[in-house]
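Quick question, first post here. What does this chain look like in 3D?
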Amino acid sequence: MYARTFSYGIITLGAMLLAGCSHDDMTSEVTPVEPVTISFNCATENDDNTTRAVIGQKGAMNSEDLYYTGFGVFASLSAEKRPDLMYNQEVAFTFVGDMDDPMKGYWSYYPIKYWPASMTNFCISAYAPYQELPISPDADDTGIIGISANTESPYIDYRRSEKSDSCVDLLWYYDEPSAIPAASENYAAGTLGMKMHHALARLEINVKLASAPAAGTKVLIDSIALTGQMAKTGRLSLTSQTTEGEGLSKKYYPVWSNLVFDKDGGGYDINHTFTIDNTDNNDQSYGIIDSPVRYINGLPYAWQPEGLTTEPQNALSTGDRKTYVYLIPQPALTLTVLVRYHKMTTSTDDMGVKTTTAVLTNVATPLRGNTTYSLNLILSGI
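> Answer (accepted):
Ran it through. Tokens below.
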């Protein structure tokens, strides 16, 4: 846990960073009498227990999202981990469900590949969402902007977004199986049960008041801006990872390297900003910021009809869908957090608006992929 509190006049911002993830190991063996097809069954670890029907909607990717995006696979038989068996092979999901089970279906790809006779140098990796090749991103494109060539160890190049409405989640998987997966109650022989991990650091932002506002007063968030030396681009290795713990407590972390260096060679882009504001006019939005702007007496109103309370409210989530600021892992992060809000007081005659800015500096912590952090902001003196 990381906690620090800073006071600036009428406002106090408390920052708390919490993190965690888990993974279940699966091992099995089979002795084939004939070539065994490489098959897949894919899911994500630590689903948020929510769903979305439209790909591209904000939120962390979960197992059902994979059914729509598919994933790309790299498989290598060489010690150098060149993808000489599968290279960015798309694995797609085919729905065959009915009213009782609409998500029923199967994973498939073509052409079919078979498990090797020797597993000495065999390794397999994957990522999601699947990206067709070639990739020719514009300068302002975010998400996956590049994939390694078929002559080198596979990697994904990624550019983060500076806006909450264009964040792209990124998943990854890596393993060096020592045996062909055996048949089980749920899987046929040769089916690799894959657990995708979240490759990015995920930051959720919660806001609350230190004490209840006076009668007739509402406090409404206008925007939250995070500014700091945040890596804007990064390279995710698909054939390396770090681990901690054992058994059910074992955690997997991705390995990232930097792509863009500042002019002084410091290793990270300088002074990038991530902004969350109330520009979304979607009537289906529910977050305290990501919601329709209505006007009363010519003034913006109802980002959250009741305004902030002493209970934490997530500044990003839409409905029951968890949404995050996605950050590329890096050794340390120093942020300036700028919060703008309206303090609205009513009387029988008019409604007034006050805008105040607060700054939280020197929040430094290493950022790790496959980890969720919470930034909890507490406004006091309202």
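The mean pLDDT is 74.
The CA atoms of residues 71 and 196 lie 10 Å apart.
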